[in-house]
Amino acid sequence: xxxxxxxxxxxxxxxxxxxxxxxxxxxxxxxxxxxxxxxxxxxxxxxxxxxxxxxxxxxxxxxxxxxxxxxxxxxxxxxxxxxxxxxxxxxxxxxxxxxxxxxxxxxxxxxxxxxxxxxxxxxxxxxxxxxxxxxxxxxxxxxxxxxxxxxxxxxxxxxxxxxxxxxxxxxxxxxxxxxxxxxxxxxxxxxxxxxxxxxxxxxxxxxxxxxxxxxxxxxxxxxxxxxxxxxxxxxxxxxxxxxxxxxxxxxxxxxxxxxxxxxxxxxxxxxxxxxxxxxxxxxxxxxxxxxxxxxxxxxxxxxxxxxxxxxxxxxxxxxxxxxxxxxxxxxxxxxxxxxxxxxxxxxxxxxxxxxxxxxxxxxxxxxxxxxxxxxxxxxxxxxxxx
Amino acid sequence: xxxxxxxxxxxxxxxxxxxxxxxxxxxxxxxxxxxxxxxxxxxxxxxxxxxxxxxxxxxxxxxxxxxxxxxxxxxxxxxxxxxxxxxxxxxxxxxxxxxxxxxxxxxxxxxxxxxxxxxxxxxxxxxxxxxxxxxxxxxxxxxxxxxxxxxxxxxxxxxxxxxxxxxxxxxxxxxxxxxxxxxxxxxxxxxxxxxxxxxxxxxxxxxxxxxxxxxxxxxxxxxxxxxxxxxxxxxxxxxxxxxxxxxxxxxxxxxxxxxxxxxxxxxxxxxxxxxxxxxxxxxxxxxxxxxxxxxxxxxxxxxxxxxxxxxxxxxxxxxxxxxxxxxxxxxxxxxxxxxxxxxxxxxxxxxxxxxxxxxxxxxxxxxxxxxxxxxxxxxxxxxxxx
Amino acid sequence: xxxxxxxxxxxxxxxxxxxxxxxxxxxxxxxxxxxxxxxxxxxxxxxxxxxxxxxxxxxxxxxxxxxxxxxxxxxxxxxxxxxxxxxxxxxxxxxxxxxxxxxxxxxxxxxxxxxxxxxxxxxxxxxxxxxxxxxxxxxxxxxxxxxxxxxxxxxxxxxxxxxxxxxxxxxxxxxxxxxxxxxxxxxxxxxxxxxxxxxxxxxxxxxxxxxxxxxxxxxxxxxxxxxxxxxxxxxxxxxxxxxxxxxxxxxxxxxxxxxxxxxxxxxxxxxxxxxxxxxxxxxxxxxxxxxxxxxxxxxxxxxxxxxxxxxxxxxxxxxxxxxxxxxxxxxxxxxxxxxxxxxxxxxxxxxxxxxxxxxxxxxxxxxxxxxxxxxxxxxxxxxxxx
Amino acid sequence: xxxxxxxxxxxxxxxxxxxxxxxxxxxxxxxxxxxxxxxxxxxxxxxxxxxxxxxxxxxxxxxxxxxxxxxxxxxxxxxxxxxxxxxxxxxxxxxxxxxxxxxxxxxxxxxxxxxxxxxxxxxxxxxxxxxxxxxxxxxxxxxxxxxxxxxxxxxxxxxxxxxxxxxxxxxxxxxxxxxxxxxxxxxxxxxxxxxxxxxxxxxxxxxxxxxxxxxxxxxxxxxxxxxxxxxxxxxxxxxxxxxxxxxxxxxxxxxxxxxxxxxxxxxxxxxxxxxxxxxxxxxxxxxxxxxxxxxxxxxxxxxxxxxxxxxxxxxxxxxxxxxxxxxxxxxxxxxxxxxxxxxxxxxxxxxxxxxxxxxxxxxxxxxxxxxxxxxxxxxxxxxxxx
Lengths: 386, 386, 386, 386
Prior knowledge:
The structure is a homotetramer.
Chain A: E1 14-19, H1 27-37, E2 41-47, H2 52-61, H3 73-82, E3 89-92, H4 99-107, E4 112-115, H5 123-135, E5 140-142, H6 150-160, E6 167-175, H7 186-191, H8 194-197, H9 202-218, E7 222-230, E8 241-248, E9 253-259, E10 268-275, E11 278-283, E12 289-294, E13 299-303, H10 311-314, H11 327-347, H12 360-378, E14 384-385
Parallel strand pairs in A: 1-2, 1-3, 3-4, 4-5, 6-9
Antiparallel strand pairs in A: 6-10, 7-8, 7-14, 8-9, 10-11, 11-12, 12-13
């Protein structure tokens, strides 16, 4: 695992701030679990809601000092930048449309940013953020958390090692059912509002995860896609289902299906990759298993930290095979990878070689994916270059 | 089950002939198992190979009388039609390009035809065969055998009963790996030769099954599709993989993926259907299970002849739940359904109401599917009407 | 597969008779499917019920000639023995207490017997039957049908080849739920009546199958056992659940759990075998899969007729991997093995070397198992030698 | 979840010390993850090894203040008890034989103890510890962590609510393979040394977990058992496999199989419970799923925080269904339950009603289980009262 034991300069936790993630937020709490699990962060500051009163209440519950509960993120960025004990990094866990202004505020103060996906709500914001991030010394980490799962790392390593041969097919799907009927809770509200979520509904919320994971594991880039988006639920303003055909650089082909209206699917992110020498199958809901079939041999079940698993998975595993790790551990791996990089920058040391996490580049690709899906679907599924 | 016990006129087996299905044939032997299992047929005549010598040898091994082993199917059709004890039906199990002439020969003699899929190798042949079949009194049964599985029947019944609500999504896939590398056996030879197989490779061989099953279970017709076909193996003259997006009448959408180059998949035909009230999932390799999720409730595992299974499945099941039935039993159900219809026609009785099997109509739809896939792919995945 | 094509003397089906198996019978119909599937038998005679009228009606439905529908099995044995075209074998599918007298009648006429399990209802009958069988020239086949499954053969072959090393553990279970509450149908009636079923309830009906399979696959004999039998349902006169610890010759240990009162289990026969080099797991409800783990390597999924399966399984498989075979095919393998042996005897040829089926020896072992369970449980689970 | 948000007196983390758990320790690191995940504890003191030098090095890596890294646990108990900011609780994660003296030292200082299982290495120590614990005001928590899994709580709740009816069968197994061959690492060393581990090998290390879980979920107590213990690996001084039949108060029966020599099993703890109205099945390696079959209805898959899951599971779940939680989350639930109780005691408030965790009572039952197994096996599997 990415353990404290490997840190050389200091074992003191990094100081973390948070924008968004107040009461009733889902993803903010996930980020806090992820930050806490490996002991690399201590949450010390926050602008936890766009409503100052709610931000204050949430901060108190989380045990933040009064003077580090902020009414808004601009104030927080400015004040924290002034402090000797200012935050080392900020987690941005707001609805999508706030990612850009919040990330900009901290990056411009030189504060490292850990931002939830997708990158922004519009491609224009994304391009601006890209500029800001490239100009800033601060790190930008995008929490495409599924790349933190040990067996996703294992799969990537096997593909890179040529165990599947030449990749021909990349089949990704991310299927849920929670928006099967009209929902009016906080989570559904902003996710189905184009002004806050962006042009993509399911493609932005979950499709980008599947897209990112497909590229991460296959090591390939998508060149073009043809999409057919649907909004099945009457009155819904964004897509709740999408069928996408994809052409990868180098000749591989694939599909991506994302849906939030398929009853019986909770959070079914699946990836299947096939080459001329073998195939791999992985499912997020059973994340400790990876199916591998060398062509012409029996299927093998590789388990996290079990027989057949290699270094890439072992590096981000905590406990022995048969002791399941889950979503929070995978998410924590992104945080711990980020901690390695942030500490290396802070203490002027070399970043451990194997450290990896998604950043601005992956964020931009995700935005291009969303845009291409929307464009293609608007033109009756024409192939669109990313 | 479709048992002999229900027959009223006569319990004597029907007399069956066979065209194709000699030594080394795969599907011919399957048809013979299917014909034999429920005791409804006795194989008495055959033109088992296009090579007379091989036909003769195969016929002897199968115990046919010398005078009913024929050198070619034309002779067989003529001679059998003359006999008092002539065959009641003929099974046509040749490569695709021979389906049309063989079926024509028997239909024109008034002999019932049980034909393997796809209907023919070309749309032209298909249109001609349609005419012949419509003109003939004889029955034409197409062995889309997967519709014979009890749980496929169960799924169809549940959809028809509204248990899924309004259907939104139909996701079908049929994935194999046996053509991952260049193959030169008999089975691969004709299936990858456009002259014998038709314009479709994987889409004809297995895609039509998935297409047929999707329509059968959903009760919906495909209006248009957009396809991206590939031939991954160098030198292959037909597609070995296809990605297809589909639009169904009434607003449902779906995808169909068929592949013969995905290592780790033996014969993985899967169907997933989702409506606004529930979802169903079925996989041919584990055919005794059907997953059903009423939206907002726990997933349920319905088993063949177990709790939760209804009449449509019980009617074509032989043994109690927990005692698995398989591919041959499903195939035999098509034969036994056909036997009901053939007997009703033979004895002038009413066909039992629930009897059903695929015929010319389903065959024509399959041919249109193949053609639409080829056309769409040739035009860069343009949406094509079926 | 054990196909007709391999027969040299004659391809004509063997003539089969049946005792028991009339209307509403479960296992009789199963035997008929099994006899029919591979085309090795034709049913021509029967004493299908202990009630002559019912026997007659059942025989007519099955299309038997009037003069070969018998009122009782004694008459049938005598008459069939006299005919030139008399039956080659008889299937005995009565309740357990009739196995002995019926088998005796046919064996003494030199007619081969295919008998359902357990051997008899009492150990006394079993010892008598053993004598009769040993004195007769006729073959005695006991349908421990689960040994007919290709993957059970595969498992046995792997154990015999040393792929598991020295066997340490044999864990067998056979779990059902259909007797969870008091049942009064025909199937339940005789199975819970000691006079017809024997001293064993679940241990006789299903425990013997698990016991037989454990010995078959492991190649080991049970030396002693300690049992705790229960009758959970009030008023039930035989056990409906049993926990058994077993000591095998050579030092292996194991358990056997059989139950008919475990809700959620339809027909869950499972076998897990572990040696010092590897482990195997198989479940009857998913019979086409065998899990194999060489110690220290990833688990492998061996499929029937798929990669990794050997000759023993291929010999009794009909169709390619991914095309599931089931209970009837496994049962039919016993019938087809028997046909090989019966034909060899009939035509004076050598029995094909690999032919195997359970017989008197396995039947006696099953009876000793039942008796030891009852004795042990009566003495508070004392270890009892078989 | 057992969240910080519910605390009223103070959100400050509790101060935690640790005995054992230095470099190369497995379970110590697990306890630290568990303590950290929900933010209820801060590790501030330790006697992390019986070797002072190693204790010191480990403490530094963990960022402990120099004056709170202790050479031995006696010193630690004394010194911490004196401090105003002394530890609120100590985690004892040593080999089994040190549980008693360490727990005694802290309990006698009034410091709450969180102790790994089994309770002690000998029944004598256990009885002494029971006295000490009962005399002390301090809390004693035993980390039978598997009772912390949400779906184990769900199962317990369903049994308690009568959804299974009257319980008849409790089948528990805990199967591993890591001791299949002789092992000489640190983990194997003390676990196979009776002086450090106690009289039980597999029965102490993992059998006690299965025993505890069976009692926890069923709500039943074991009255007597009959055991057959084995040491398959030559030279091994404790059991590495055990077969146990059990009789529960009230008439339920069960078996428990634990093994560390079954290749292909990583950490396969399974529980199956059957009553006269339904059955439940749960497996630790797939902990987010619980199978429930109401007798006569289809099997249902209940998921953590998904449809069908109740309050008991929701209370200890952190994230939505489909987002898997694992071993560390389950373990953390014990720590967070303990935190609720420790805070209630510390601040003089009422302990939240639903709070539950294993303690001395469960520890004593586990010791009696080990002793009964050893006694029974020594007397050829005689039934022994607990």
